[in-house]
Amino acid sequence: MSFETDIIVAGTGLAAYAAAIAAAERTPRLSVTLVGRPGPIPPSGSLRLLAPSEDAAREWCLAALTELSQPGAFEPALASLMVDESHVAADFLAASGVALPPRSRLRLGGDYIPLCRSILDAGPMAEVKARLRARALAAGVDIHEGLRLVTIGADDGPPGSAICTDMHDETVRLRARAVVLAERGCAPLFVPDAQQDVAAGLGLGLLRQTRAVLGNAAFIQMVWRTVDDEPFDLGLAAGSPSFEVAGPGGVFTRLPRPLVALASERATHKAHAWSRADNAIDVHLLDCMTPAGVVNIRHERQPLRIVPAVVSATGGARISVDGATNLTGLYACGGCATGMFGADVLEGSHATAALVFGIRAGIGATRHACSALMPPPPEHRPPMPPRRLPLRLREALLQHCLPGHRPGLQALIERLRALASLPSLTPLEHCRVLSALTVAEFRSALLH
Question: What residue stretches are annotated with the FAD-dependent oxidoreductase 2 FAD-binding domain (predicted)?
Fold first, then answer.
């Protein structure tokens, strides 16, 4: 099976819908196709948007982003543009039928009061996604939720020469004049359902198949969740006298006093930059992690099993202000781009960046597609039967790529390289391995 389209957008998140809608509404004569398999949306999950309306608030937000970002991986021009155009993101949601309240429900004190005044609560994410999907369909976007992009630049061709797989793992060849990557980045490789369909972690793997310039893949950000996928606020719990952690021997003990003293600081941000002192709490828990990637704790006399859940490893393609990569015809936004929101720890910044640069990437793709030639289709390949990978990627990355003392990283890299060279891998397996390899190599370079 094969088909062609002018613009293909890969992903099912905010950035993907923003890019697809912007492209379709900008130039209706171009065909726009969105592919991707939607992941689960927590029923209680709410979308918060960073949208400062006053100059002082914008300056505060930009300063906070700068402070929380990873040194050397922050693009001030992109962050400044995101903050300045945050109203564009808010207007985009409003035009999609999303009701935005006049003020935030967020309540923080002290230095974070300006942040509270800059947050818009857009309501349940499921409802926001439904309205964006309806707007995309009304604009003429062809949505294929059963397809998943697994190869771009096939046969050493341009990015638009691509391969998807359908729900039955059958290969679908496609070609497009422009490609917008908005898949989830490497983050899903670390979460418990990394081997499932909806959380593939393909962003870095797709980009690595091309010669796109990558950055920031060593910077792992995470929050803690229970094994039942319920949120767990480490900052609030760590300061409690009832909080205990089971060490390597299974004995529960309280946190060391120096770490308890850092708990209040840790509570001010939901994810983190590893340069911050309070991340010593997270590293302590990682050192107590079992081989299965679980930390056993007791909180308020209740036993809990928690896991590190990466919310956004900010690695991806380095982009221009228009979402363009260094490759002609390839654009990136959301989890596939890097540099615009520092550490992704400031409440609402991730959603704002996804919308602002998703819109810009979609418009940039239309400009390119208006004059670009259609690339040749990929060569036909017989489908490979899906198999379980001989390396469990989640466990390997948890053991070797999270911050703290992680021996054996070079051995993991060599094993991943050997695995990536196997001709028997399916395109999906190959893409996952490339994502994991990219994270491991960036971590190794950072440590050495």
Answer: 6-188
